[in-house]
Amino acid sequence: MSEHVRGSGGRPPDLVVSLDDPVCRQNEVTGGKGASLSKMRAAGMAVPDGFVVTAAAFESSLSDRGVLDQVRKLAASEGGSVDQIKHLVLGTPLSEPLRDQVAIAYAALGPDVFVAVRSSACAEDGDVASFAG
Fold it and tell me: Whole-prediction pTM value?
């Protein structure tokens, strides 16, 4: 996986990390599914090459678009609804840095590659329970 996918030095938190990157094994960075796949791959299990869009990517993308403060205000208010927050989040395009990092990571997998896409919250899948749907 390309070094361009990783942050370093004074760069902001990684938005995308390779399954081979040790930071990918941290649940708080990549969520339970990403961390588990990274750990299995490191242990030599047959896990295809891949990458994870980090938890920081979600917050960063909303922040870059000026939506994060609105979401936080709605979440903290009694009048804010889940539907309002969902509408804001789903209506917000991904930030350019996130789109770029995903494109770089995807291209690094090779030409005409098939991929599986999964999602989970950082606390959704853990050592004690899995809430995958």
Answer: 0.74
